[in-house]
Specification:
The chain is mainly alpha-helical and 429 residues long. The protein has 14 helices and no strands. The longest helix is centred in the middle third of the chain and has 57 residues. The protein is globular and about 55 Å long.
Length: 429
């Protein structure tokens, strides 16, 4: 095949284009992240890194509760209705009522229980001011989430890449500046106000398109979208809130049972994992959900899943092998004093590989609003992770949590695959 034909083929290959742009974003993130993680490790140590993990997990919970979990619903309906202005108006009218309720409830809870939340997360009330600061930022978190949903629903992957890079670089500069000036407190403040920066970047880069698609004459609940968004809300609250809550609790358990430094080692491993897994989030929302939403038979679904697997799994597998082979160098460069991290790599990487394969298939639940299937599989998966972690941590220490991560996704993969294939068979009959 000539170079001209290869270029033409690449231009038609949406998945490859998204992956290539995501690779650029990830490359920049990884370079910056190496510097930041090293600086954090040297400045605030393992115990400080554990506190950073707690505030990041809290932000994950707030992202879901403040927007009442409408993100995937916005992605789905923006993708399906982008040419229909009337239906989009109704959908966004309902969406903004949802986030208004979410913002009010989340803000009130943060203010009322700020002291209790601070003690639960950090062991004392010294950082209660962070919780109060987050209560002010909640509206920005919710609006940011809706705008991101529109961006993903339109599959605007070029603008998505630009927004990701700019917002990540700005938030990194903010974090480093606050770290050098205020130490750990500065890091927590910078993380708390990052959603405001991200919102400003989205409005600046994507504002014209947002104004074109988000047109609301009046705020009113439209029953078809109310029910649909309620389904996505339950899905999001079950997954995002429970995942982050379990991570917070496991980190607390490690701190209490072993040491805060060990909690920091596991947090550092999670940071690395989330950095190389970040490319999949764009893949799912920009490509998988919109694509699956338009597929209505088993043959097409299997063909698309195999296409995604053949495109991304070999690349992902090679990347993970390289991470494992150079794990000692990675730890020496990024976390020089975190020697006990090395045993965590094997199980975390294996688990993440199976996780990616599982999540590709599981996004059919979101694309087709399969609420019961999603909730049941997610709860079983999270219960397995928590139960296995509690069991293995007694035998293997912190490594036991990464082992639980791997075993949980092996079971989850087959469970999801069986349910989805059965749903197509049942639909056909």
């Amino acid at each position: 095949m000539s170079i001209k034909n290869l270029i033409a083929s690449f231009r038609k290959h949406t998945l490859l284009k998204i992956l290539s742009l995501n690779s650029i974003v990830i490359g920049i993130r990884l370079i910056v992240s190496v510097f930041i993680q090293n600086l954090l490790a040297e400045t605030i140590g393992a115990s400080g890194l554990a506190k950073v993990g707690q505030i990041r997990n809290l932000l994950g919970i707030l992202t879901s509760t403040s927007s009442l979990g409408v993100f995937n619903g916005v992605v789905k309906y923006t993708s399906e209705l982008k040419e229909d202005e009337t239906f989009l108006k109704k959908m966004f009218s309902t969406t903004f009522i949802f986030i208004s309720v979410g913002v009010c409830l989340t803000t009130i809870l943060l203010l009322l229980f700020s002291n209790e939340i601070a003690v639960y997360l950090f062991g004392d009330s010294d950082f209660v001011f962070i919780i109060k600061l987050l209560s002010i930022i909640v509206p920005a978190i919710a609006i940011n989430r809706v705008f991101s949903g529109v961006l993903n629903g339109l599959s605007a992957y070029k603008k998505y890449a630009k927004i990701e890079i700019v917002s990540y670089l700005l938030s990194s500069v903010l974090l480093v500046s606050f770290l050098l000036k205020f130490n750990l407190e500065g890091v927590l403040i910078a993380i708390a106000i990052t959603p405001v920066l991200q919102l400003l970047v989205i409005v600046f880069v994507f504002g014209k398109t947002l104004r074109k698609h988000i047109k609301i004459n009046s705020l009113k609940l439209n029953s078809p979208y109310t029910r649909a968004l309620l389904i996505f809300m339950i899905m999001s609250l079950v997954s995002t809130v429970l995942v982050n809550f379990i991570e917070i609790d496991l980190r607390t358990q490690i701190s209490n049972r072993i040491s805060e430094d060990e909690a920091g080692n596991w947090t550092a491993m999670l940071f690395l994992s989330k950095n190389y897994m970040v490319f999949s989030s764009g893949l799912f929302t920009l490509y998988v959900i919109p694509k699956f939403a338009r597929i209505h038979n088993r043959g097409e679904f299997k063909k698309e899943v195999l296409h995604i697997y053949k495109t991304i799994m070999p690349l992902f597998g090679i990347g993970m092998i390289l991470v494992y082979l150079f794990r000692n160098i990675i730890v020496d460069i990024i976390y020089p004093d975190f020697k006990y991290m090395e045993p965590l790599f094997k199980w975390q990487l294996l688990g993440d590989f199976v996780k990616l394969a599982s999540l590709v298939v599981a996004h059919q639940f979101l694309a087709k609003k399969m609420l019961i299937s999603f909730v049941v599989t997610e709860i079983i998966s999270l219960a397995l992770f928590y139960g296995l972690s509690m069991f293995f941590v007694n035998e293997y220490g912190t490594e036991g949590i990464t082992m639980a991560h791997f075993y949980r996704y092996i079971i989850y993969f087959f469970m999801v695959l069986i349910i989805i294939l059965y749903s197509f068979k049942n639909k056909k009959s």
